[in-house]
Amino acid sequence: MVGIGKAAVKEIAVASKVSQVTIFKYFTSKEGLVEAVMMEFITKRMAEYKTIACSDAPFRQRFAGLMALLTDNAKVFQGEYTAVLMRDHPQLLERIMGERRRLFREITVPFIAEGRAAGLIDPAIADEMFLIYSEVVVAGVAARLDLLEAILADRQRLDQLMKLICFGFIAK
Predict the structure, then answer these.
(1) Residues 64-73: pLDDT tens digits?
(2) Do residues 152 and 74 lie in contact, with contact meaning Cβ atoms separated by under 8 Å?
(3) How far is the C-alpha of 32 from the C-alpha of 139, rounded, in Å?
(4) ∠39-42-43 over CA atoms, to 5°?
């Protein structure tokens, strides 16, 4: 597979079985096409997040499902794709983060409240701190894409990182 930066619109058109004119009609540039594809992916993943978080399954099962989805997201958006998004598409990244914040308030806050009521989430941690924490993690990843790439290549290390992010250092 050719990387985003190396793919020519002509190659994309051939692979998509459409003309270059059609691509430029709907997406004014290759960057516009990349943004549309990434935004479609994010929109679908956010719908999956909402489906899992709002299902009738027990809290722990939904939490595990959300962690699996986040791990899968990390695997999909690895390497060049993550670098391109963070380096070359800051406006798209900000739109994605804005949508994450909206989703957090709409879905994650009630999910956290449910976990607190069940005694599974520390009641001393304010809702907003969960959002800040997740944004700090994203910023850390953006600062060290080279480390992320190495971790994503090793499923065991990725699982350990996700456990660390979600559960901290304390053994349960």
Answers:
(1) 888 888 777 7
(2) yes
(3) 24
(4) 85
